[in-house]
């Protein structure tokens, strides 16, 4: 993993605001999970908006994690060094908002990792899940085309991928819905897809 350095991008900031604009909790202590790299811009905004929020954060690169520890303390975030999926698989916390700002490729192993999350393992009812992924070269990824028969990459990214997550969610009686898809370019020209989804528990 290399140190993330797109934090000052105007479009990245717009992506953060798209997420902020998608949630408004009716209580003042929401539980939020995110991946701040070493800048914590989004998490500081969450702290300003919800002073009593629980903010849990994870970083998988040790140097980036070390750089972020001080800022985490200043905003009272529980910052951990771990792989995000390992962390969430062990965590007992139920979140109102999870932002997986991965910015990596859409791969079969990513889809496998997302299954328990879209099935509601880590969320409260009516939670919001945001996922940022790079939108590039999915057709070159081994095994992906065997899983999904896509006509075009656009259709795969924007429809089939989410339809698949929806069917995994449904297996656990969870309704997963699109709230927004924000497409932008990072400063190095990489196309990004920010999926903003809602999770509703249908078991009642
Ligand atoms: C795109 S940056 C986060 C940017 C930040 N959310 C912001 O608003 O500027 C993603 C960070 O997550 C880390 N990361 C990527 N994949 C990870 C994984 N599977 N587990 C833990 N950390 C990961 C990267 O090292 C990087 O620091």
Folded structure, characterized:
The protein has 204 residues and is an alpha/beta fold. Among the domains are: 52-93, no CATH class; 118-150 and 157-204, no CATH class. 37% of the residues lie in helices and 29% in strands. Strands 3-2-1-4-5-7-6 form a 7-stranded mixed beta sheet, with helices on both faces. Helix 5 (108-118) links the parallel strand 4 and strand 5 (123-134). Helix 5 (108-118) packs parallel to helix 7 (153-171). The protein is globular and about 50 Å long. The model has no long low-confidence stretch (mean pLDDT 93). S-adenosylmethionine binds at residues 1, 4, 7, 12, 16, 35-37, 39, 41-42, 58-61, 64, 83-84, 101-103.
Annotation keywords:
single chain, 204 residues, alpha/beta, seven-stranded mixed sheet, 37% helix, globular, binds S-adenosylmethionine
